[in-house]
Design brief:
The chain has 111 residues and is mainly beta. It has no helices and 10 strands. The protein has a 5-stranded mixed barrel. The two termini are 27 Å apart.
């Protein structure tokens, strides 16, 4: 089931867009398979024409939503992943906050 994220454009890069959704800022990767529309009309993604603060709706397919978790910074303990801050049970280091961009299936811009 697709998931929808509504917010405003916080940043744009060559092949990704950051969306402010409430208090969170989430990154979404844009590919040649991403359907883009502005005011209901199909468009090609062009980072120069997406404006900061612009209203946006991003749809992602099941399993492609952005993730936020905590991981051990030690390469030997890279398999340690948690959903909350804490210490690595293997080495005792503080877990590092990490974000993984979602894969945008559709992006709808208001104007």
């Amino acid at each position: 089931k697709p998931e929808t994220f509504k917010g405003t454009v916080a940043a744009v890069e060559k092949a990704s867009v950051q969306v402010k959704v409430g208090e969170k800022s989430l990154w979404f990767d844009v590919s040649d398979k991403t359907k883009i529309s502005r005011a209901g009309k199909h468009e090609v993604f062009d980072n120069l024409h997406v404006k900061m603060g612009e209203a946006v709706e991003v749809l992602v397919n099941d399993g492609d939503a952005p993730t936020h978790d905590y991981r051990c910074p030690m390469k030997s303990d890279a398999d340690v992943v948690a959903q909350a801050p804490g210490k690595c049970p293997k080495c005792g280091m503080n877990l590092r906050e990490t974000d993984k961009a979602g894969k945008a299936a559709e992006i709808h811009l208001a104007k």
